[in-house]
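Let's do one together. I've listed all components of the complex below, 935 residues spread over two lines.
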Amino acid sequence: MKDVKCECGHVNPHGTVLCEACGKILDEEENKNHLLDMRYEGSARRSQTYNKTIIDKIWNFFSSVKVGVWLIVITLIASILGTILPQEMYIDLPPEVYYQQEYGWFGKLYYQLGFHDLYGSWWYLLLIALIGISLVICSLDRVVPLYKALKAQRVTRHEGFLKRQRIFGVNHHIDDNDLAIVKQHLLQKHYHVREENGDLLAEKGRFSRWGPYVNHVGLIIFLFGGMLRFVPGMYVNENLWIREGETAVVPETGEQFYLQNNQFILQHYDKDKNKTFEKALERAGDVVKNYQSNVVLYKRSGKKIPGETPKLKKVKEYKVRVNHPLTFDGYSVYQASFRSEMNAMTFALTNKKTKKPVGELKINLLNPKEKYDLGNGYTVEILNYFPDFEFAKNGEPSTKSRVPNNPAFVFRMFTPEKPKGETSFVAIRQTIEPFGNNTYKMAFKGIDTKNVSGLIVRKDSSLWVIILGGILFMIGVVQGAYWNHRRIWVQHKNGEVWIAAHTNKNWYGLKREIERVLENTKLDLPKDQFQNEQTDKEGA
Amino acid sequence: MATLSSNLLFIAFILYLVATLFFGGSIKAKKDLNDTKTTNKWGKIAVFLTIVGFVSQLGYFITRWIAAGHAPVSNMFEFTTFFGMALVGAFIVIYFIYRTTLLGLFTMPVAILVIAYASMFPRDISPLIPALQSYWLHIHVTTAAIGEAILAISFAAGLIYLVKVIDQTKPSKRTFWLEVVMFALVVVIGFVAVSSIFSGVGYHEKFNWTDKHGNEDVMEYTMPALTGPHKAELLTEGGFQPLVEMPAIINAKKLNTVIWSLLAGGVLYSLIRLIIRKRIAAALKPLVKNIKLDFVDEISYRSVLIGFPVFTLGALVFAMIWAQVAWSRFWGWDPKEVWALITWLFYAAFLHLRLSKGWHGEKSAWLAVIGFVIIMFNLVAVNLVIAGLHSYAGS
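Okay, and this is what the predicted structure of the assembly comes out as:
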């Protein structure tokens, strides 16, 4: 395609609507309009110029703001759908059960449509990806020609360009003194003033035109950062449960770091101590004040030898609380939850007839002894231990897990009366005596519990990219929203002085500024031709 | 301190009411509303009262902060009140840019409704749960509310635009939807009225009921139960027997409040229509006859431009930073997070339509109205109905 040479001598790329240098209308279509479309300075945008190859077609599709807005609106509606019922990650039952049970046929349908994991669905991610592509192409299609056009603009502009500006006025009386005052005022208003043959171009805030592109770049970087999460090693998200007093290896650290949980603390607000909150606490009941795990972080020193207890070096002590994660070496450990676990059970060996206890024993549920000697000829042996007891399908007692959620024991009690021993099966709230009536029983005395801290271990190396994207986006948005690109042309045409002005937004501010600039001169205020056009329509 | 605080809020509320009347007076007394250099005596008094009211409410905010030990933005009452204050603050700022008292006449009633609505929620100073104990509470919530308030100014300006531009001589889709907006505002008055009346007479009744898991519980109503809970059994002697019993899946108490509000709003609206004998929007039309359309259009657009970055910063950026610190992830698709994203997407679409597709004037005004509906939905429905991790905001 050939370039277009304007009568002013400037060579414009094919597809240019307004000459980049003088603003003369090069496209006949534009001539018909009363006011110019100044959005992209009438520059030659690829999407408006070429439409032949498949690449052109794809480019044109994504460069359309209409398509972009549709993508935004579809994403918006899809996002709404995902908030109707709780998402998968916020429910505590298997989704195939939960939705139907809680919400009936609607819940079932919701689940079947895959809306329970809407934001992780392939089509939602596709929408976000399409928005990303649209951002890139839209921006490139506009920013390059816009930059060229603004760079190539000359001071002296074509008559047709000035006349078709929204703010335009003609003065018949020329006083060079007035022009000097105007220039002075413009400089005071921090305009960048260029002069050519007595014509003025005052311009300020051009950088605000780049705002949208800067924020789009920020968004693209942000989305890219979100994608990085799927790269192995960039992202760690593990649960870590540690019992009080125990030490555990921090997952995904290559067994470099160990965490010891000294104590878990749960505090509630006390309405007697906090008088300010008395009424609110009466209404709401117990309100948690603090979840805290007092931990010690260790680092392994020396090499890892299988089967040997690692040598640990203390790094730091820390109180992990909500809003106060422990951070080290790119990892963060968060206080996420807690649970209480049975730790020990106490029984008393008791004569069933006299109901007299002859001795007590405390069984560590995580590590029970085989034999407990109570003295005076009384001994208790543990023949079998089921930490998480259940009856298996074949009717035999068995254990679900190693966690003492529901401990059960098979005891053998040796007493002076029964030196051969009596067998008793003891679980919570039930005792079975498999070989007939025993003389002695194991009477339940109490449970010791221990807290287990629920921690989350996170490492997110993509965070920096996301932060960078966010910062760029904010800079771009502020740049585009809080500054305006204003231009005022004061030019000699046909022995008159023409004043025209353009801004990308905030016309009201521009008009007020022109009032100030023309103060103390005999020059007339230019008219807002858009308003005139509107009143014409209203009148008709 | 807490008493002083509530008194200051009450004073602010009264001042806003009086200021609104003066704004009305300034419109009647002034011929050319586009003249931005002069404000008449009525207008000056109105703006003065607004500023005094704002300062008084600021006093409420500070004294309550001192009393509670944390910024009062942690529950429904506090947040909504703050939103009302931010709305007044945003109006004051925009007023000093554009100097039009007409904007005050449309913004102040919205702010008054917002604060009145807020006052219907429990006003006790409540303690902070661990997740909220962070200075990010102050930063995130206040910035988000200020952003939303500035965006709400575009709604007020958009409303002025629509009242002026829509032809009220014959009924059309446009007159209908504009009237729906007016009706919605009246329903808020209805809600405030019924809530105040029933809490004024101390109405209470209790029910035994069964939830969807078959658990029995007691539910307390503060309004006569039109819709009763599942398997309701009235416990209060002389209490009102429910007209309809709801299935367990529906929150009968909230539905009951909604129905009462709609009823009261409906009655109020019918009364207004009986008295003025035309649509509310039609009755407002004379007030806006002297303003230029493109002037309010620009105010509306500029509020979006100013509010959008503030909203993004508060409701998304600061929210993400805090979520990363408190919940270990900056984004978790919690309903409140998603609705902040939806609001953001909506205004992003708004700006693109305006900048590139030339949606100026009436289309833009309708978008400003829809934007406000989304913000209100986010404030009311998401907190009270959808809940999620932000559920503490619902009490």
